[in-house]
Amino acid sequence: MAxxxxxxxxxxxxxxxxxxxxxxxxxxxxxxTDRGLYAVQDEARAARxxxxxxREPVAPWSGGRRHSxx
Length: 70
Fold this sequence. Notes:
Radius of gyration: 13 Å
Number of strands: 2
Distance between the termini: 35 Å
Mean pLDDT: 87
Shape: globular
Oligomer: single chain
């Protein structure tokens, strides 16, 4: 099954960017078309918003596995 990725704009607001800005979504490297989302994600990470409040957030595509670093 092919993944479907969409850009969502509602009343002039980019819902994709807003979710990343709030720390509610990751920028998925495989499908990103707007490279500017990386800066938005970096801002959310620096502010420790949403998922970035966790010291070691786990990417959803990792299958829930944490890297032990050992």
